[in-house]
Amino acid sequence: MTAIDPAVEAHLEATRAARLESYFEFLRIPSISALPEHGPDMVRAAEWIVGELTRMGFEHAEVSPTPWHPIVYADWLHAPGAPTVLVYCHYDVQPVDPIELWETAPFDPFVKDGRVVGRGAADDKGQLHMHLKAAEALFATRGRLPLNLRIVFEGEEESTSVSLPGWLAANRARLGADVVVISDTGFHEGNLPAITESLRGILYTQIDVAVGPIDLHSGSYGGAVENPANALARIISELKDRDGVVQVPGFYDDVRPLDEATRTRMAALPFDEEAFRSRISAPALAGETGYTVLEREGARPTLDVNGIWGGFQGHGEKTIIPAHAHAKVSMRLVADQDPEVLWPKFRDYVLQVAPPGVTVEVSKLGSGRPSATPVDHPVVRAAASAIEATFGRPPFFRRNGGSIPVAATFEETLGLTVVLMGFANPDSNAHAPNETMVLDNYETGIRTICLLWDRLGANGLGG
Amino acid sequence: MTAIDPAVEAHLEATRAARLESYFEFLRIPSISALPEHGPDMVRAAEWIVGELTRMGFEHAEVSPTPWHPIVYADWLHAPGAPTVLVYCHYDVQPVDPIELWETAPFDPFVKDGRVVGRGAADDKGQLHMHLKAAEALFATRGRLPLNLRIVFEGEEESTSVSLPGWLAANRARLGADVVVISDTGFHEGNLPAITESLRGILYTQIDVAVGPIDLHSGSYGGAVENPANALARIISELKDRDGVVQVPGFYDDVRPLDEATRTRMAALPFDEEAFRSRISAPALAGETGYTVLEREGARPTLDVNGIWGGFQGHGEKTIIPAHAHAKVSMRLVADQDPEVLWPKFRDYVLQVAPPGVTVEVSKLGSGRPSATPVDHPVVRAAASAIEATFGRPPFFRRNGGSIPVAATFEETLGLTVVLMGFANPDSNAHAPNETMVLDNYETGIRTICLLWDRLGANGLGG
Q1: Does A339 touch chain B (CB under 8 A)?
Q2: What is the ipTM, given to two decimal places?
Q3: Which of B355, B361, B390, B398 is the most exposed place for a label (fewest CB within 10 A)?
C-alpha cells in the first residue's frame, strides 16, 4: 500500500500552524447565504477563495456571477493522460440561530478538545479548505498536480442551490471531467471513516381538500356533508399500510432491489438501534416490515406527512366542519425511482382514494432524483483505499436517507458519476449551535485527498 | 278549535303600535354578552325587563346576580290546580361584526318589508319580548294569568351559558314547574310553522399524537420512525368507515331507533336537497348509507374533525417529520346517547387503533347531552294545536342537528321536559348582519302563546 509522498507530508507537517490560521481566517467571514445583509460577505468569501486558488497555481480562477451568490470556478488541466476530477464544495453556511446556545461567537473560531468550533467548521467551509490545502501542498512541493482538477465551489447550498443547475447547464462546455467528487458528507457514528454510497431523492407534494368556500356549522351539516379533514385523513391513511408499505400503484416498480452484497455491507455498519431511538426520545422505532432500521432509512423509499392543517386550531371548542384541509406529503426515493414518473401515479392514486363529496387537488411542489454511486467505481475504490491508508481502517459504506439535490444535479446536467467523500465527524452539529470539526479528520483528510489525487494520477480510472 | 279570547285579541290589536315601540326600545339596548364594555348594557337590559314584568303583574321580579351577567327571574303562581310553566329566553345578543355588512346601525331597529331589522330581533330578544307581551295582554284583560308562570331569562346564552347551570342548581328549590318552554328556535324552510322535537348532544375531544420533543429530519428518520401526522390520519380514518358509520364499539348502543312514525314525520318536511347542497357550494352531499339528508342531520349521530394541525403549514417545502400532530374531533349525539358513557369508549378505541411508535393522548374538552321532546307530550300537543289555530296550519316537527346545551341543562338540573317552541323565520340571519324577525311571526306568535297558556290553564296536562 503506497503511503503519502514524504515531501508532501513534510510540507503539511511544516505548515500546520499557518494552515489552521488560514482555516480560521476563512471561517471568520460570515458567509450566510440565506440572509441578504450578508451579501457582501458572500462576495468576500468567494474572492478570498479565488485569491488562494490563484496564489497556489490554479488557472482561470474566477468569482463567477449567478443571479444570486457567485460560484467560484478554477481549473488546472496540465496532466495529459491523467483523469480530470471536478471537486464540489460550498462556501456558504447556515444561519446561527439560536445564537444564545453558542458557547462563543459563531464566527470567531477556536480549538477546543481537538476540534475546531465555529459555523462552517465542518459544513462545508472546513471541507472546502481541506481541498484548498491538499492542492496547495501538491503545488508547493512539485509545482504541479498529479491529475487535472476543476474546482466548483457554490455559495447557495444552504439555500437550495437556486443558481447551480442553470450555471452548470450554461457552463457545460467548459466542465468536461471524468468524475465529480463532493466533500459535503461525513463519517459514520463513532467517527468511523465512511463513504456515502447513496442519497435518497424526493417528491414533495401538497394535497388540498375542500367542501366549499366557508366553514360549516357542525350541528347543521354534520353527517350530511363530507368533512374535508376526515376525507384528508382517509386519503393519507390509504397512502401507506400498517406495515409501512406505500400503496401508490407502481411505487416500487423501479426500486433497485437490495442485493445480498449491499445488505451485508449495511449490516456490517456499527449501529446502536437503542441509542438511535433514545436520541430522539421516540417511544419505539417503526417502519417497513422485513428491513433493518438502516435499510429503512437509507435504502428503501418512504412517504411522510410533513405538515397538515385545517379548521380550528385554538384552545377549547369550535364546532365547525372545516371548509378545507391541507397536507404536505413527501416521498423519499431510492435508485432507480424517478420522481417525474412517480408524480402522476401519486396524483392519480390520491384522486382515486378520495371520498366523494369533496374537491381534491394535488400539486407537486418539488422533486429531486435519488443518487447512487456504484461501490466498485474505480474512484470509489481508490477513495476507499486512500482512506484506509491514511485513517488506518477501511471506510464503511453508508446510505444516506437525506437528499443532496446537488449530487443528482451533477449527474443529470453533466452526466457524471458523483463520489461522496466527506470527512465531517457525525457529531459536528451541522446547522446547529457549536458546530465542530475534529482536527484529526481535517488533517488526515487532507492527506487522504493528496494520496487519492496521486493514485488517480498514477493509475487512471482503469481499475 | 277554540280561537284566541276576543278580549285578548282586542287588546293586542289596540296596542300594536305601542308594542312595536316597546320592542324597538328593548332592541336598542346593545346587550352583547361577549364584550366586556357592554357589561352596563347587560344590567340595563335586565332592569328594563324586570320593570316590564313588575308593571304588568309578575311577582318576585328580580335582576338575580350570577358570577357574570345577571339572570332575570319572576313568577306568578296564583292559578291553583293549573300547570306551572317555566319560560326560558335570553336577552343577550351576538356581537355585530362584520359591522360594515349591516345596512343600518344594528341597534337602531326599523321595519322593512314586513320585518323588524336589528340585532336580537329574532335571536332572542324578539321572542323574549313576545312572551312579555303575551303575558301583558292576559294580565291587562283579566288581571291574572290562566296558569302559573315562572320566568327565567338568561344573559349569557351567546357566551356558552357559563352561569346558568350553577344558578339553576342553587335555585332548584324555587323553580318547581311542570314543563319548560324555550322560545329560541325557529320555523322550517319557507317560514313554515314548526316545533323542534330534538337537539343533538355533543362529545368534543382532542387527540394529540407525538413521536418526540422536536421535529425530525425526514431524510434521516423517514421510514424508520412512525410519523405522528400519518398516525393521526390513520386514527381518524378508523373512526368512521366509508359509509359514514362511526366505528367506535358501542357507539350506537343507546341510539333510539328511528321509528316509522318519526321517519314519516321527517319525510313530510318540505326539503330541497339540491338547494341545501347549492347553498354551501358542496360538490355533493354525503353521509350514512340508508338515511335521508334530514335524518342524517337531525336524527343520527355523527363524528367530525373540527380542526387538525401539525408540522409545516407554510408555503413551499420543509422536510420534517412533525414532532406532534393534533386534531379536534367531536361527535354529535342523539337520544339516548350519553356523552359520559361514550367518552371512555371513544378514548379506548382511539388508543387501540393508534399505530405503535407514537404516544397518543385523548382528552375530553366538553360535552352536552342530546335532548328530545316526546311529540305526544301534552304540552307539545297543545303547542302544536295553538300554532295551527293561530298560524292556520299544523306545525312540522323538526329535528335540529345542533346542540342547545341549555335544553339539556334544564332537563338534567330540574328534571323537566323541555318544549322547544320558537318563532324565528329561518332566514332571520341570527348571528349575522341584518338580523330580521318577520313581524307576522312575532304578532301571530304572541297570540299562539296566549292561546297555549289559556288551553293549558283550562285543560291541564292530562292530555
Answers
A1: no
A2: 0.88
A3: B361
